[in-house]
Amino acid sequence: MEQAVMVEPDLRLVDQLMSLGAGDVKKCFQCATCTAVCKLSTAENGFPRKQMLLAQWGLKERLVEDPGPWLCFYCGECSKDCLRKANPGETMMALRRYLTTQYDWTGLSRLMYRSAAWELGILGLVASVVVLLFTLPRGFGFGLLNQAGPQALRSVMLDKFAPVETVHLADTMLALLLGFFLLTNAARMFRRLTRNDGIPLATYLRRLPTLALQLFTQSRWKGCQADDAIKNWVRHLALASGYMLMFTLVVIFLPWFQVQNDSLHWTSYLGYYATGVLVAGSGWMILDRARQRGEMYRFSHLSDWLFPALLLLTAATGILVNLLRVENLPMPTYVMYTIHLAVAAPMLVVEVPFGKWAHLLYRPVAIYVDAVRKDALAARG
Ligand code: SF4
Ligand code: SF4
Q1: Three-state DSSP class for 302?
Q2: Residue 141, SS3 per DSSP
Q3: Is the CB of 92 under 6 A from ligand 2?
């Protein structure tokens, strides 16, 4: 006979969730209309009513082992139909922020999500390190003026100011660092979701294509019932493709991508595409959020602004570097290049593994685990 397990409620949980954006969670009285309304919710894994209950009861452990919050794509339809105005869609969003803080073993996510001062401070710290690397005297950093030499002050010589091998090495180290943090956090998430589930490894292996499909296409979004679901899906996908492409160009193909003249390499065309979708996609998202267009953008946490804002700034400063270089304005080019890296580096090192970006990995992992659980249930009859 199965032993009943006592679960200790965490009485601070509901307040923590409220501070992360679930301001109305206490209003829920469990009518379940939201679950009936949500097209993504299933008989095997119903949401968001269940998560509203777990949050109200302070059942933190049950929440951390639940893929449900990541199965929601925040269309906001359930919030429209909630008679109690408990905003279940927003609670699911706040839960994702909360879970991000729980998966992260460094504690940085927790600091960043709970305090704007910490989030801005950490981003500012990484940006300052980049600026110092370029402005400190030679021997301590790359050395802006002293290393470039007088010739590089007469015409733009980006490779003298920021030698491509040095920048490439720094990029690679950055990629390894953020990959390490992101993957170890995702591994913690996976372990919590699958702990003691008794599902055979073969079931997990058979379902790996689902993980790859969701990682590269985010196709589950299409199942959402909101009028603008397809638009949001395409925009999100385009933005993610621009981001991943730019990341690949900078980390792997920098020697060809960071050009010193006007010759066009094939990486340049990919760079134009990536820059275009980054500017258009992030700018459009910021505008929608500012106008609070649609349920999805009715509430905004600082983290919702920061990631698209940093993406837009990275792309815009990259365009400016190129324009100044073409105009042959040495010092403005070098200054803009430093600003460009001072925006891009914190976005990569801080926002990707510890902030909002991480949902691009967490969500496919949750969808994958949910699919494996369904397969296992079906196999048990
Ligand atoms: S969130 Fe609203 S719709 Fe959902 S169960 Fe609670 S009261 Fe009902
Ligand atoms: S916000 Fe949309 S996807 Fe999320 S639970 Fe509500 S109806 Fe479902």
Answers
A1: helix
A2: strand
A3: yes
pLDDT digits (tens, 9 = 90+) for 188-223: 999 999 998 889 999 999 999 999 999 998 888 887
CATH class for the domain made up of 13-103: mainly alpha
Residue nearest atom 6 of ligand 1, based on CA coordinates: 28
Contacts of 257 (CB under 8 A, 6+ apart): 249, 250, 265, 267, 268, 271
Q: Is any ligand 2 atom within 6 A of the Cβ of residue 68?
A: no
Q: What is the pLDDT of residues 80-113, one digit of tens each?
A: 999 999 999 999 999 999 999 999 999 999 999 9
Test site for ligand 1: of 14, 17, 30, most ligand atoms within 8 A of the Cβ: 30
Nearest to 221 by CA among 235, 209, 207, 206: 235
pTM for the predicted model, two decimal places = 0.88
Pocket test for ligand 1, best of 25, 29, 31 (most atoms within 8 A of CB): 31
Q: How far is residue 120 from each of residues 18, 54, 93, 117, 127, measured CA to CA in Å?
A: 21, 31, 21, 5, 10
List the structure tokens of 28. Answer: 């829920």
The sign of the CA dihedral 230, 288, 81, 58 is: positive
pLDDT band at 2 (very low <50, low <70, confident <90, very high): very low
Q: Is 289 in the pocket of ligand 1 (CB under 6 A)?
A: no
Contact 144, 161 (CB under 8 A): yes
Q: Does residue 286 have its Cβ closer than 6 Å to ligand 1?
A: no
Confirm or reject: Cβ of 192 under 6 Å from ligand 1: no
> Where does CATH 1.10.1060.10 sit in the chain?
13-103
